[in-house]
Specification:
Number of helices: 15
Shape: flat
Helix content: over 70%
Distance between the termini: 69 Å
CATH class of the largest domain: Mainly Alpha
CATH superfamily of the largest domain: MetI-like
Largest sheet: 2 strands, antiparallel
Number of domains: 2
Order of helices and strands: HHHHHHEEHHHHHHHHH
Strand order of the largest sheet: 1-2
CATH architecture of the largest domain: Orthogonal Bundle
Strand content: under 5%
Oligomer: single chain
Structural class: mainly alpha
Number of strands: 2
């Protein structure tokens, strides 16, 4: 497709968005001015402030058109692909869903320039050109429809503005609906993720026994290409993967929790403003370092150092060990605990500290018996966030702990984690009808259930031990 047509196709949505925003701003100003004009500038005669009349008109101008654009974007690709396939001779795909998907992939590759038009099938090239024409027509039609809806909405609301109109109430209701929709998107996204993982996991458990997966001690999901090859059935006992995840996470939390919590207590209760202004940003810098950098540090510095110490003490330390990965991961998640705990501790009212001091408590007693119990929910939340971060870490484990699924509680040996195995199983071109690929979803489901259980336990602990003050 020529470069000029590409520019038109990709500019239309942008131009439509800018025009819609401009129309919204113009409608807002017109709504305000109309409200002023109806009462000759005497604001006392208006039910609401003029800004609410402008917002009311702008929202009715923008929202309907925006909803249509979102719906169009959701179904545009499916409609175009259906029309393109309908225009291709059936001899190319035979009506088979798999061949149709492959054909659509070839068309997309030609459109994106990944495959030369000269090397591709002429009918595929023609289909790609047809796709681009339909997409250009769709974008142009969407632009016209959006602008027409926006102008109709603006005219409709501007003509309905009158001094007794409850514009503020209407705007507040519309904003509540928008916020509810935003919250629903987050909830529905989470539900969609859970259901997608659940359905694929059910397919996996139809092939592999649940007990074999949860309690098996051999993890070798590689499937042979032929049935007569050794290990053609694979081994899907996930206990070694779960043990490796728990081992590395435990080492990381053993490093991060005490250091992070003690640093938060020091910065919030003992450090001078100068030290706090220097130390807190330096701690938070750790959170911004890419995990691959931590992985390189673990491989080049920490792992060789542990191995050399092990040799001196007569210990056999693997070049890739759970200890190296756990230590570096613990350093990485220190800011999650220290920064959040520091903010929570600072949020404890100073009057509680003053009351404890007035009763004769020392600073350490005040921290242990007053400040920390009051800040317990936030501290537990920071620890839970750190645990989730540790469980979900992949790059450091790949580089420092390896890919071997060993059933071992020895931190000096090489192990692997759930997230590393998920990445390994889903890397490259995979068929989503084999136990090897579907095992990744089963691992993800177990990881989700464990994280959910940890959060429930944390909530119960917080509700039982937190201090409430009036």
């Amino acid at each position: 497709m020529p470069a000029s047509s590409c520019a038109v196709v990709h500019m239309n949505p942008l131009i439509s968005t800018l025009l819609l925003v401009a129309l919204g701003l113009i409608t807002y100003q017109l709504g305000r001015r109309r409200a002023f004009g109806l009462v000759d500038g005497e604001l006392r005669k208006l039910h609401s402030l003029p800004a609410y009349y402008g917002l009311y008109a702008a929202l009715w101008c923008v929202l309907p058109a925006l909803l249509v654009a979102i719906a169009w974007a959701a179904f545009d690709g499916a409609i175009i692909s259906h029309l393109v396939i309908a225009g291709i001779p059936e001899s190319l795909h035979g009506g088979d869903a798999g061949r149709i998907n492959l054909l659509l992939n070839d068309i997309r590759n030609v459109r994106l320039g990944l495959v030369s038009s000269a090397a591709a099938d002429p009918q595929v090239v023609a289909a790609a050109a047809h796709w681009d024409r339909l997409q250009a027509i769709g974008h142009a039609a969407l632009a016209v429809l959006v602008l027409v809806l926006a102008m109709l909405g603006a005219v409709f609301t501007l003509t309905r503005i009158h001094p007794d109109q409850r514009a503020r109430n209407a705007v507040e209701r519309m904003v509540q609906v928008i916020m509810m929709a935003a919250a629903s998107v987050a909830i529905l996204t989470t539900l969609g993720i859970v259901l997608s993982v659940l359905f694929e996991s059910i397919r996996f458990f139809q092939m592999i026994s649940v007990t074999d997966f949860l309690f098996g001690t051999q993890w070798s999901p590689q499937m042979a290409m032929r049935a007569d090859q050794a290990g053609s059935s694979g081994a899907f006992g996930a206990i070694p993967v779960f043990v490796g995840t728990a081992l590395i996470s435990a080492i990381a939390m053993a490093v991060a929790v005490p250091i992070g919590l003690f640093s938060a207590i020091y910065l919030s209760e003992y450090a001078s403003p100068l030290i706090r202004s220097i130390a807190k940003p330096l701690l938070e810098v750790l959170a911004g370092i890419p995990t691959v950098v931590y992985g390189v540090f673990a491989v080049l510095v920490v792992a060789p150092l542990l191995r050399s110490w092990g040799v001196k003490m007569g210990l056999d330390v693997a070049s890739e060990s759970a200890l190296a990965a756990g230590l570096v991961m613990g350093v990485m998640i220190i800011p999650f605990i220290s920064s959040l705990s520091d903010d929570v501790i600072n949020a404890v009212p100073q009057s509680l500290r003053d009351g404890a001091y007035a009763l004769g408590a020392t600073p350490s007693e005040t921290i242990r018996k007053v400040v920390l119990p009051a800040a317990l929910p936030g501290i537990v939340g920071s620890v839970m966030l750190a645990i989730s971060r540790a469980i979900g870490e992949t790059m450091i484990v790949v580089m420092a702990a390896g890919l071997t699924a060993n059933l071992s509680f020895n931190p000096l040996e090489s192990v692997t984690t759930v997230t590393v195995q998920i990445v390994t199983l889903l890397t490259g071109d995979q068929e989503f009808d084999s136990p090897k690929t579907l095992a990744a979803f089963a691992l993800g489901l177990v990881l989700f259930m464990v994280t959910l259980l940890l959060n429930v336990i944390a909530l119960r602990v917080v509700n039982k031990y937190r201090e409430q003050y009036e």
